[in-house]
Specification:
The complex is a heterodimer of chains A (213) and B (497). In chain A, 29% of the residues lie in helices and 23% in strands. Chain A is α/β, with parallel strands linked by helices. The chains are: A alpha/beta (213), B alpha+beta (497).
Chain lengths: 213, 497
């Protein structure tokens, strides 16, 4: 259980876990940033769950996923339909080192979902990203079960047009780049859906997702 | 121990293959024809009163009910290869010999079939039962056995050391010589191999050259010809014969489990792990199917290998059933034995994470391309990251290094941009990309990159890179290509975080 600032926060995290039907030792949530963590029921991005990221523009979506994976330890898998999905020299600044990154290139969407499920079921990885536009609820349910079995973090990186469909991901984020005069990373981060929590909206700068000065 | 070879000659291969596929052809005259220049002539005939080399029209006039097929050498070759794979069940060394022959190295394999006669009978009976006409001969050298098999339609076994006596009465045609040499030998009155062998070699060599001497040497000499095995024999092999042909997936998996257990035990005893495994399924109709899997790091864990096969077993088509399955390790690496944990109360159970990752990558690698990207010490964007083996760790850059801002995605195919300037030689105010238009808020740069003068593309134009902050929000990595003698061209090369 993460060390929480207050008993109330602690209680909320426990209720969130009970609502998800999880028992046993909890996995520590992935901390994004203090002022976002306060808003999330488990005090951070929950492990053992699926999270959806809608990328309003390509750079912001990739960077947000990379900065989440950068907070995990050990190798991570990036599953994409294109061979040039990500470029490690740029991910370095987001905390995701090239030595931790493994890329898989799928041809059919079903293959991509299969690869993500295999990766989430494997105890060798703490997290994986799948870039995919569409998938059905059955596939998402399978992925959800896979994450709950091992406590790994699954990210689905999707185009913004996917916002309307139903989903059983624990949270759904929308990330868009904001103009920044020095061309430094700055994003408009919207929490569109959060099971057991409230939607929210933040402006963050830098890979540490800090509040803008 | 002297070597023993079995040669099989299938002179009716093309016709027998068609008759096997179409039983209606069984009792009818059949001929195979091919195009020779502008004429169509018979190549292979199984009909009375007709002979190869006859014109197609003549043959049809003589024998109106003749069934004619065009020669398909490629299909015949594929069928012969299938037969060669089938023969791997009798001996691990099988080679295709020409267009209508097979060679089997029988050394040491005959004892399993009750001696040489039993070995020969088992193979010929098996192939004849499936409707193939053939002639077999066993001898101490491959060339002698092949010559004996082509002599007359008799199966024969020549005891070791008697090859010369056995081939001497054979006609010279058994040596598979070129037609001009055959004509030349006939003019000289040399009709049998013994006649040729009695002649002094030097005049023969002067007249006919190596085209005659080489086959003669191969048949008589002690030097063995290279034997091109169709599949190199594996060091580790497990095989199961089924009493009944098996058809169903559970049955196949059951046999595979038994094979994997046996093979992994052998690998464990030898201290090795498999890198590539071939499952070979012998179907009752003499077709052989292969399923190959590879692993990234050597493994001899049956459960892991079984999961890798599970993805591929769908490709097997049992149809009437498989009667034999073999599993062989074609490539192995040394694999040190790992000591199992002494089971104290605090002992950590389970394998360490590195084999777990290798297992996951093996499974993914069966269906998709998996790689890492290794960082190279190059400022040229295309060379900064190269695909690398996913199983080996790649070096991480030193943490203290200050890196210039780089995009999170580098486009493999840069997209052309058309800039609009407010002032000449100033920064662009708009960048048009197809129908889309990026309004520029800030353009940071240029960062001049010159090609590596020591590399192959030292002649390429230099590039100016800009970090462009658009009014809409996205940050782009834009390249201005400085080609001498023309206007600079602009490209979108990547997306910044």
């Amino acid at each position: 259980m993460p060390v929480s600032p207050s008993p109330l926060q602690d209680l909320r995290a426990r209720i969130a876990r009970i609502e998800r039907g999880l028992t046993g030792t909890p996995w520590p949530a992935v901390s994004l940033s203090p002022f976002i963590d306060r808003h999330l029921p488990e005090g951070g991005l929950a492990r053992g769950a699926l999270h959806e990221v809608l990328a309003a523009d390509p750079g912001a979506g990739l960077a947000f996923c990379a900065s989440i994976l950068g907070r995990l330890t050990g190798p991570v898998l990036w599953i994409a339909p294109a061979a040039d999905a990500v470029w490690p020299p740029g991910l370095q600044a987001l905390g995701l080192c090239a030595s931790r990154l493994i890329l898989a290139q799928y041809r059919q969407p079903a293959e991509g979902l299969w690869a993500l499920e295999e990766a989430l079921r494997s105890p060798a990885l703490q997290g994986a990203v799948l870039q995919i536009p569409h998938f059905d609820l059955t596939a998402a349910r399978r992925l959800q079960l896979a994450t709950e079995a091992t406590g790994s973090l699954g990210l689905l990186l999707r185009p913004p047009t996917a916002a309307r469909g139903p989903s059983n991901a624990l949270t759904r984020w929308r990330v868009a780049a904001r103009p920044e005069p020095r061309a430094q990373p700055a994003w408009q981060l919207d929490l569109l859906r959060c099971r057991g929590g409230q939607p929210g909206s933040w402006v963050v700068v830098g890979p540490e997702l800090a509040a803008p000065p | 121990m002297s070597r023993r070879y079995l040669a099989l000659h299938l002179p009716w291969l093309a016709i027998d293959r068609r008759r096997r596929r179409n039983p209606a052809l069984r009792d009818r005259p059949v001929a195979i024809w091919h195009q020779a220049g502008s004429r169509r002539v018979l190549q292979m005939v199984d009909a009375p009163a007709l002979a190869p080399g006859q014109a197609l029209a003549d043959a049809q006039a003589i024998c109106p009910e003749l069934m004619l097929f065009e020669a398909t050498p490629r299909e015949e070759a594929a069928f012969l290869e299938q037969l060669a794979l089938w023969c791997l069940r009798f001996t691990p060394q099988v080679a295709v010999d020409g267009t209508e022959g097979l060679l089997l190295e029988a050394t040491g394999a005959t004892a399993l079939f009750g001696g040489e006669a039993g070995f020969l009978a088992a193979i010929t009976a098996s192939l004849r039962n499936s409707g193939l006409r053939l002639c077999a001969a066993m001898a101490g050298s491959a060339a002698a056995a092949a010559a004996l098999a082509r002599a007359d339609g008799m199966d024969r076994i020549v005891p070791p050391g008697q090859e010369l006596a056995a081939i001497a009465p054979l006609p010279v045609t058994a040596l598979r010589l070129q037609s001009e040499i055959l004509i030349g030998l006939r003019r000289l009155g040399l009709r049998r191999i013994g006649d040729v062998l009695r002649q002094p070699r030097a005049p023969l060599a002067r007249r006919f050259g190596s085209a005659l001497i080489d086959p003669l040497q191969a048949v008589t000499g002690p030097g063995a010809l290279p034997f091109h095995s169709i599949r190199p024999p594996a060091a580790f092999l497990a095989a199961r014969d089924c009493l009944e042909p098996i058809l169903t997936r559970p049955a196949i998996e059951h046999v595979l489990d038994a094979l994997l257990g046996e093979l992994c035990q052998a690998l464990s005893a030898a201290g090795r792990g498999a890198r590539r495994l071939t499952l070979r399924a012998f179907r009752v109709d003499r077709a052989v199917q292969e399923v190959v899997i590879g692993t990234g790091v050597a493994s001899r864990d049956p459960a892991h290998l079984r999961r890798l096969f599970a993805e591929r077993l769908d490709r097997l088509a049992p149809e009437l059933g498989f009667e034999r399955l073999t599993l062989e390790a074609n490539a192995t690496d040394p694999l040190e034995g790992l000591q199992t944990m002494l089971g104290g109360p605090g002992a950590v159970e389970g394998p360490s994470p590195v084999p777990l990752l290798a297992e996951l990558l093996d499974r993914l690698g069966q269906r998709m391309a998996v790689h890492r990207l290794a960082l190279l010490d190059s400022h040229w964007p295309e060379y900064a990251a190269v695909p690398a083996d996913p199983f080996a760790p790649v070096a991480a850059p030193s943490p203290g290094e200050i890196l210039p801002p780089r995009p999170v995605r580098l486009l493999a195919e840069p997209v052309a941009l058309f800039p609009i300037f407010a002032v000449p030689n100033g920064p662009p105010v708009q960048l048009r990309q197809g129908r889309e238009c990026h309004r520029v808020l800030r353009c940071i740069g240029p960062e001049r990159l010159e090609p590596e003068w020591w590399g192959e593309d030292a002649e390429r134009p230099a590039r100016d890179y800009y970090r462009v902050q658009t009014v809409e929000g996205p940050r782009l990595w834009v390249c201005r290509l400085l080609e001498p003698g023309s206007e600079p061209r602009w490209f979108l090369h990547g997306y910044l975080a």
